Amino acid sequence: MAGVVVGCAGSAWLVASVLAPEIFHDHLGQAGIDHDSAEAAHVEEAFTDSIVLALGLAVGVAVLLALLASWYLTRRVQRSVAVVTTSTVEIAGGRYDTRVASPELGREFDDLATSVNELARRLGATDTSRRRMLADLGHEMRTPLATIDSYLEAVEDGVRDYDDDTREVLWRATRRLERLASDIVAVSAVEEHLTRLHPVPTTVAELVGTATDAAREQFADKGVELTARELVDAEVTVDIDRMGQVLGNLLDNALRHTPAGGTVTVSTGVHDTGLVSVTVTDTGEGVAAHHLDHLFDRFYRVDTARGRHSGGSGIGLTITRALVEAHGGRVSAASDGPGHGSRFTVTIPASSRG
């Protein structure tokens, strides 16, 4: 910065040296003073001395101010860079709660601080998800592994025969482990936002129609009636595949817990708050009030014994919640109690109209 000031001062001196003498002598002539007189020489010397002194002083003050400003800004930049460096070292060491305050040095530095903070947040979320995944995995693997171990030991000791019943139990436990591994990968991808959304305009009626058409055969096979009513043509901007996955999970959950002869109904609604909703209502087993707040927790089951035998891992609703929240919406569950069915409602923003 000081070099810039000196360069500007040199340029000003050069221009003044070229233009000032001509202008000065012209004004002497207009004042009636002879250019070659002693008076003119004295005036010119006074003018030159004052210009040199003023310009020299101005340059000196400017250079001093430039040096002070450069020192101040350099110190601030160094401190900001040092903070970012220290923070990244802490983040690399596993302290994902580390955050960088805005240095207030302009948009670029603010963007840098924001990027570092977002990196720390995502790494923290990933690490939390990894820890939870490992804990859940260890917990969920115990039952099928214990089943396999006990049956194999019984066969080896001659307590049980390796008959069709034994093979079926072992195959069920093995398939349970396979589904568990697949579910772990799926929910981790959703919760860590590894699956990018590709939102496009569509309507709620189209989403519901596609989901119910895809599930109709499964419902018919079990003898459960699937109906869709009050479908609105409200426009939404969503990832069609992911919202199809959401509705598919809710329909699958309703089918799993609704006995033959029951009914599952899908309805929609538009709210004054600029939101649209899709509700899946079944006439199935229902849910006790103390379970409702936990239905979307990872691997949570209302009836653990039934869940294991029917193939449900308790993870489909977790994926549903993650996908709905990624669309800026929410999902909730309600029930009048065991034996009175349940209702799952997805609420997402409607597309704004220009």
Offer a concise description of the structure.
The protein has 3 domains: 2-92; 123-191, Orthogonal Bundle (Helix Hairpins), CATH 1.10.287; 200-349, Heat Shock Protein 90, CATH 3.30.565.10. Strand 4 and strand 5 (275-282) form a beta hairpin. It has helices at 2-30, 38-92, 107-157, 164-191, 204-222, 240-256, 289-292, 304-310, 316-326; strands at 200-203, 225-229, 235-238, 263-270, 275-282, 330-335, 342-349.
Explain this structure.
This protein has 354 residues and is of the alpha+beta class. The protein has 3 domains: 2-92; 123-191, Helix Hairpins (Orthogonal Bundle); 200-349, 2-Layer Sandwich (Heat Shock Protein 90). 62% of the residues lie in helices and 12% in strands. It has helices spanning 2-30, 38-92, 107-157, 164-191, 204-222, 240-256, 289-292, 304-310, 316-326; strands spanning 200-203, 225-229, 235-238, 263-270, 275-282, 330-335, 342-349. It has a 5-stranded mixed β-sheet with strand order 2-4-5-7-6, covered by helices on one side. A hairpin with a 4-residue loop joins strand 4 (263-270) and strand 5 (275-282). Helix 5 (204-222) runs parallel beside helix 6 and helix 6 runs antiparallel to helix 9 (316-326). The two termini are 50 Å apart.
